[in-house]
Queue: 2 jobs
Job 1
Amino acid sequence: MTSLIPTRIVPSVTPAELTPRQVAAELRKLLDSGAKMRAAGEAKDNPEELLSLGYTPKHAISLFGTRFYLTNPLQNPALRFLVAYVVQRSAATGRTEIYPRIFYKDLSLVWRCASHVIANDGDFWIGKGDVRTVRRGGHDFEECVESTTDLPFEMQTALETVNRRAQPKTDEEALYLVLRNAPSSRTEPYRDFTEPRRRAAADRRNLIYGGRSIARFTRKNDPSSLRIVDGFEPDFSKGILETSEGRSAMYGGPLRRFRILSRNRKVQYLFFAGPKHVWIIPPQALTTELSTYGVRTVDVVADEDLFVPGFEYHYYDDDSDEEDFSQIPEGFAGEPSEHDSDRADASAWLDLIPIIVEFRRKVLHPRSRGVY
């Protein structure tokens, strides 16, 4: 049975004003009252073992009827992350269920929920959500739609607050305990990630712009050729919901985040601005349904080249004798980051995109690339 998912414009949430002891006790009370914990990784046979192993929550956030219990930040060589316990009432049974997940900070600085992991025979790759089939050069390719793992914009600032409350501890076990380990050949996530999205899409009233792209470039490798469907442009005059501040060594210090509604109030954008860079996180719907992964079940389709981060992957691929591996449009890669030589400056592309030009002119200081 399909249904129309409600939408709501709400302020960003903040962590609950509870002590770590109170947060842990709240989760324990749910378990003692019969709530079922369901893990997907190595802890699936005894998921409560996660608590005895030290993955006890210290912080809590609530959004749209879902409660999130979060550990202090953890770090392995690849990721900064939190173990999250996503608590929802099952629509089928009415019982409270608890899902351990991994919330991690992507290199674009947005917080995501990992869909699975591949860790076999020397491979290591974090599952990046749903997939789509694209056709290039007469062949079909399967690619990840990474934005399907982006956690709601309404909780991004709260997650960053949690991230900065404590120094991260080194941990190389949590990912395997929590995440399902997939074969090396499997890019797509499992049914528990995809099925809520399929149900939401079955009612076409839930689709943003009918599931079609709201933004595209009309000419290849021409950032000035961006076209956005009328009404879906960010409203820089009356649509800025809130701003927040942070810091990033990679981006040279202070950062500001701007959560901005579209003119038609159908979607929301998240702009990042640093001393030299501005980039955009893929827009999100305003729907209130979250899956057990904590992500929205409805997404927004748009050209991914609009969402290149300030520094993006661009390096020589050892498996290729001919070319670099790059996620920056051809001809626009700048100097490598001094913090990560595998990532290059994408400003040459970003600074010619019309809505970034407009954002700088209308929201930031009109004569500077910096943040004021």
Job 2
Amino acid sequence: MEEMERFLQVNASMGLMLETTARLDAHRNSPGKDPEVRIEMIENAGKLRIPFTTGLLLGIGESMGDREESLMIIRDLARRYGHIQEVIIQNFCPKEGTPMAGYSPVDPEEICLTIRMARDILPDDVAIQIPPNLADASSLILCGVDDLGGVSPLTIDYVNPEHPWPEIRELEHLIGDARLMERLCIYPRYIEKGWYSPQLAPLIRRLDQIVEERNNGNTEG
């Protein structure tokens, strides 16, 4: 918790995937992925009023019941502290040469069902995000997705480098009638509440104004 307090001075938001509350073979050699350890960190973020991102990783051996339990844990933390700004529903992508190379990818219908369940369980002000380089945004938007996360024209997805980020124009095409809007890593309601370090205030206010102008169609300056 002390480390998080230090990071808070230079980070407008933080995040950690819960992945699942289930104890799975996929995590047996990774003590940092113990569900209790991760839940404690997410809760500590709430105590420190850190705008936070978490999420589920689908297809690592968990059941639909495990996903429901995980979402309810996140919901309870969000209600208690009000710090969860978004929940990522991410499909696991098996990689050759790893112990989980033989795992079957989760099919789009199952991802959609999980997104719908998340929308039913989570508070209305918690966004549901998918990574658009790993899943089909064009179909999942209709399942309840309202955020596509960070897409960089400068860097790769270092966890999944074999899946390049889609171009902005491609995303605009994928989402159909929905409107693509830029945002900061800290959601507007937390900017209004002042949930950030005073030393970050000038930068956050300046960037917030720039983003608002871009979203309103004013790109001057």
